[in-house]
Amino acid sequence: MERTLSIIKPDGVKKNIIGEVVSRFEKAGLKVVASKMKHLSQREAEGFYAVHKERPFFGSLIEFMISGPVVLMILEGEGAILKNRELMGATNPADADEGTIRKDFADSIESNIVHGSDAPETADFETKYFFSALETY
Ligand code: CMP
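Above: inputs. Below: predicted complex with adenosine-3',5'-cyclic-monophosphate.
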């Protein structure tokens, strides 16, 4: 069993598709073992995306991520990290496969509806960044 962090970003919450996104995870065999809605502070968003801080899009990404509440989730399942990434589709919706969350709902490479951990090390950092052991089931 593997665990990964999923975020429904402010654009996903604004588009009222929380249920649709969670349903896709559940239908694919991923289980939500922790979940909360949160309006991130600038400091929280910058800490989460610290790995991108030298990128030209960093300021804009942070502004977008704090523009409204997000839904934070830990998903559990066999091969959860890869499975979640397959369900999301490519970062840029223009490159995403048919039937993926980003292809179906995302407007741009920045406003791309969901985030998912990309490797076991990042999944470990990201799940612990937002959830304590007491908050997971
Ligand atoms: P995410 O998977 O959350 O990881 C980093 C985020 O930065 C990414 O999704 C996009 O929202 C954003 N991002 C990545 N590349 C670019 C880019 N070239 N321009 C703007 N935003 C980007």
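The first strand starts at residue 2 and ends at 8.
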